[in-house]
Amino acid sequence: MAVLRKDINELLTQTGPGTPMGELFRQYWIPALLAEELPEDDCPPVRVKLLSERMVAFRDSEGRYGLIDEFCAHRGASLWFGRNEGSGLRCPYHGWKYDVTGQCIEVPSEADNSSFCQNVQLTSYPLVKIGDVLWTHMGDAATRPPLPEFEWVHVPAEQTYTSKRWQQCNWLQAFEGGIDSSHVTFLHSGGLKTDPLFKGAKGNEYNLNDTKPFFEVADSEGGLFVGARRNAEEGRYYWRITPWVMPAFTMVPPRGDHPVHGHFWVPIDDENCWTYSFDYHPVRDLSETERQAMIDGHGVHSKNIPGTYRPMANMDNDYLIDREAQKRGETYSGVAGIAMQDASLQESMGPIVDRSKERLVPADSGIIKARQKLRKAAIALRDEGVKPPGVDPAHQRVRSAAVVLPQAESFLDSCRDAVKVTPGVAQTSV
After folding, report:
1. Can you give the pTM of this predicted structure?
2. Which residues make beta-bridge pairs with 230?
3. What are phi and psi of 335, to 5 degrees?
4. Which pLDDT score is estimated for 1?
5. How far is CA 58 from CA 66, 74, 268, in A?
6. What is the Cα–Cα distance from 159 to 129, expressed in whole angstroms?
């Protein structure tokens, strides 16, 4: 298949201010922080870098969240050192103080009757808590869309869990792993047998017994549905249906009654991204055992260095690779944990993979179509101001699904209800 031209690769991977893909991301609400990072009023501010913009987030004395330019308008000192007090963030250098909108509200060196601070305004973005995530919209306020309606952030807190990890590569190669079902049979084969959030499902047997899935990709209003078909019993196919909602939301098809997994991939800059990983169950609480497994880094989650969101297994320690476990077949790559099996290989491609060297195959059809859809949307937004797919909350009310169907049936025609959010109805799973 044709390789990706250098200029298209740059368009898809560059997300800073003024770039086509950066402007595309700025049309959406995206995760900025976990709510646990600002746990109480007047807690310490947090550095935030998104889409190559450096900011600080804070929660003021009245519980309001703010996301503002990191640097004081006076002399450029970082407000991460600021004092969070009295309903504002005060620069410790000369005492200039800002509220959650970035408006300067005090300049101590000025006379009491001075209006100077009224003309000092830092760039700011809204920061809204939905579920256990703080979301921001970094685009034009005049075209700000409604708040996100992904099911995982709207079920009761007892039914959901979210983590995040720093990934040292461009967002696109991380995201592409999220819609690639063909690698599961190989890279995650050990996890299908042993991971507490994956093992025991009938679907695992189909995954392990058929290493040559056939892919069928269907357009959706918000992105794509990627169907991976494997052989099941005679006359039937096992389908795993992965939804992608633009720009960077994916869901892993479910396994048995295990919670449903998924990701949101958010660019930090062009060479790093945040991977937000979630588990939720549509109709029941997560068990204590399930929640603890997530905290311990099983399933799609990582075990992070305490006090940080950097995985304990990382490129500096070769991901704690265990060649003996690889030889024994306990892990296919020698890296433990499904999350870090993915991240290690995605990071191994380099900060931004050179896609002009790729040799793609039919199993990559979902990735090819996703790149095409991203490029088309970014150019249409840039050239004609066309609102991209996935902005409408209705596009976000989707589910992944795993089903066994007669060979003659179309996966999408048969699963239209299965891939829609229906409150009070469990996921469609095998």
Report:
1. 0.95
2. 238
3. -100, 135
4. 57
5. 5, 19, 18
6. 17
